[in-house]
Amino acid sequence: MYYKTKSYRIFYALNIILLSLISLACILPLIHVLALSFSSGLAVSANKVTFWPVDFNLDSYKRTLGDADFLVAFYLSVARVVLGVVIGIAVTVLTAYPLSKMDSLKGGRVIAWFFVFTMLFNGGLIPSYILIQKLHLMNTIWALVLPGALGVYNMILMLNFFRAIPKELEEASLIDGAGHMTTLIRIYLPISMPSIATIVLFVAVGHWNAWFDGLIYMQKENWPMSTLLQTMIKAPDLSQRTVSDAEIVNLTERTLKSAKIFIGTLPILLVYPFLQRYFVKGIVLGAVKG
Amino acid sequence: MRLRKNAVLYWMLLPGMILVFVFHYLPMAGLVMAFQDFKPWLGFVKSPWVGWENFQMAFQREDSLQVVWNTFFIACTKIIVNLVVPVVFALLLNEIRHMGLKKVIQTLVYLPHFLSWVVFGGIVGDILSSQGIINTLVLPSLGLDPILFLADGNWFRFVVIVSDNWKEFGFATIVFLAALSNIDPSLYEAAEVDGANRWRQTWAVTLPALVPIVIVVGTLAMSSVLNAGFDQIFNLYNPLVYDKGDIIDTFVYRVGLLNSEFGLGTAIGLFKSAVGFIMVIIAYVLASRFANYRIF
Questions:
Q1: Contact, B166 vs A26, CB < 8 A?
Q2: Is A172 on the interface with B (CB under 8 A)?
Q3: Which residues 174-213 of B have a C-beta within 8 angstroms of A?
Q4: Which residues form the signal peptide (chain A) (predicted)?
Q5: Helix or strand holding residue B217 (H, E)
Q6: What average pLDDT is seen over chain B?
């Protein structure tokens, strides 16, 4: 066997070392910033912190989370995630089900291309901005939820999944007198739970991470979490807050920023194990079908 | 009977079609702004028509030409790097026979894809800053001088390309790993019997099996020739690197939206959308011809 030869064994050992180093490189910067956020400002300024906190303290988190803006932003982010997931999944499933029968549905292919065309061409930033203005959606949560409610890519994933469900199931249900709506809810949805779970997680992560729409459509006091974090990380403003002498030892711009970076990352880290269980399968299903 | 039952299918499509019409097709109609001197208080009907003036302006201004070139350069380099690295990584990972280790590696390299550029850009900005760990610890220990990664245009481009690859390469390996796991093991056994070592097997069995999916991913990526990554650039750049790092999307945001030059911004945006559209059509035709790719 090839893997018993000496040259392959040397390659194998080097390969393991190389891949381990690369994977560590994906996670170490995050750990470094996490360590910074728990360290004292003095230690950070003196470059003493690498991957473990020095002079462990929680001051930068207390300061960041004590901010009233933060609570509002957190609430708005949760609201947009929930609304975005509920509306998004409902519309995605409702669209994918009829299109999964596009060949027997009159006009089905044309309608499918009506959706796909939006992936190929778009009006761009400024017309979209003016549209939101004209619809009087400015500074409402609907400006964050509705424009992207139907993710065409997710819809195609769902559509391809529905197509793989045996026709006999649907026919049996229709012959029994059930309508399409009942068939969708009673037959299709229960079978499709794994792929729906994938899309739920993707949509939720997408809404949590979205920041630019908040920046242009919402006023400052209604910024969701990611937008607030973006403005704080990109252009930190310490001037409006007074820092007491006791705090200055532990707080610097960098420790505060690091705490914010970690707060923005934490929800993603929490759902990542669930994400990982599903996404590999979902993506492969959608991408490599012949 | 069948037909009556099918009517409900069209009702199901309605909400999605309305959403897509309002939020995707109406903005396309708004592209007429590219041919107007658009004033919000006059609207689409009363704003004066200026023909191709906005485009002429866009291609005469030195800064916007530079921006188009920056976008093209960064996007094309990303396309190549983001194709080659994941393929090589997938090949190397495919050799690992310890399933536990393979799983751990996959868990770690997929993670950055799910972080937003807000936090990932924050991390990159911190470690590359003048007080960051690279400039205060890594480079001095190698005997090198500090580097202003985010303040020097050429270094900025380098950082943009490398950090994008660093965030996305892992996730991009998924499709290649899937293709590798679909290879019929008997092909390797036959090659083994013929006396082929692993290197020969890789050339004769593994790579040919990867070619179709590499063609699909590669051609579909062509549609991004003017997509240099707004989120990333916006969260990393600063006025010092506008000359080398400003791209179409960030330019449209600053000039079109912040400075309210709606006509000019829309014209440049339309240029980008049109180029993307042409590329995606070419890519789709190529991918369907050479790799039998279909969306549905």
A1: yes
A2: no
A3: 174-175, 178-179, 192, 196-198, 201, 213
A4: none
A5: helix B207-221
A6: 91
Any CB–CB contact under 8 A between A146 and chain B?
Answer: yes
Q: How far is CA A283 from the centre of its chain?
A: 15
Q: Does B292 touch chain A (CB under 8 A)?
A: yes
Residue in chain B lying closest to A49 (CA):
B133
pLDDT in tens, A50-100: 899 998 989 889 888 888 888 899 999 999 999 999 999 999 999 999 999
Q: Are A234 and A251 in contact (CB under 8 A)?
A: no
Among the partner residues A111, A133, A209, nearest to B116 by beta-carbon distance: A209
Q: If you average pLDDT over each of A255-259, B81-85, B215-219, which comes out highest?
A: B81-85
What number is the average pLDDT over the span B184-201?
90
> Of residues A160 and B88, which shows the higher confidence score?
B88
* A269-279: b (≥16 Cβ within 10 Å) or e: eeebeebbebb
Query: Are the CB atoms for B288 and A146 separated by under 8 Å?
Result: no
d(C-alpha A52, C-alpha A236), whole Å: 24
Among all residues of chain B, which has the CA nearest to that of A120? B277
Mutate to test the interface with B, among A45, A126, A150, A288 (most CBs of B within 10 A): A126
Which residues of chain B lie closer than 8 angstroms to A280, CB-CB?
Answer: 174, 178
Alpha-carbon gap, residue B27 to B35, rounded angstroms: 14
Q: Quick one: pLDDT at residue A243?
A: 55
| Residue to substitute from B3, B118, B162, interface A, most A β-carbons within 10 A | B118
**Complex ipTM above 0.85?**
yes
For residue B49, the Cα-to-chain-centroid distance in whole angstroms is: 34
Closest CA to B31 of A150, A215, A131, A142: A131
**Separation in Å, CA of A145 to nearest CA in chain B:** 11
Q: Which residue of A has its CA nearest to B137?
A: A47
Closest Cα in chain B, distance from residue A59 (Å): 19
Question: How far apart are the C-alpha atoms of A1 and B140, rounded to whole Å?
Answer: 46
CATH topology for the B63-122+153-290 domain: MetI-like fold (1.10.3720)
Yes or no, beta carbons of A33 and B15 under 8 Å apart: no
**In chain B, where does DSSP find H-type helix?**
2-20, 26-29, 43-46, 53-60, 62-95, 99-110, 117-128, 133, 139-141, 153-181, 185-193, 198-201, 207-221, 230-236, 242-245, 248-251, 262-290
| pLDDT tens digit sequence for B253-281 | 999 999 989 999 999 999 999 999 999 88
For residue B31, which residues of chain A lie inside 8 Å, CB to CB? Answer: 123-124, 127
- Weakly modelled stretches of chain A, pLDDT under 50: 237-241, 287-290
Domain definitions of chain B by residue range: 1-25, 63-122+153-290
Distances (CA, A) of A7 to A4, B199, B204, B279: 9, 11, 19, 45
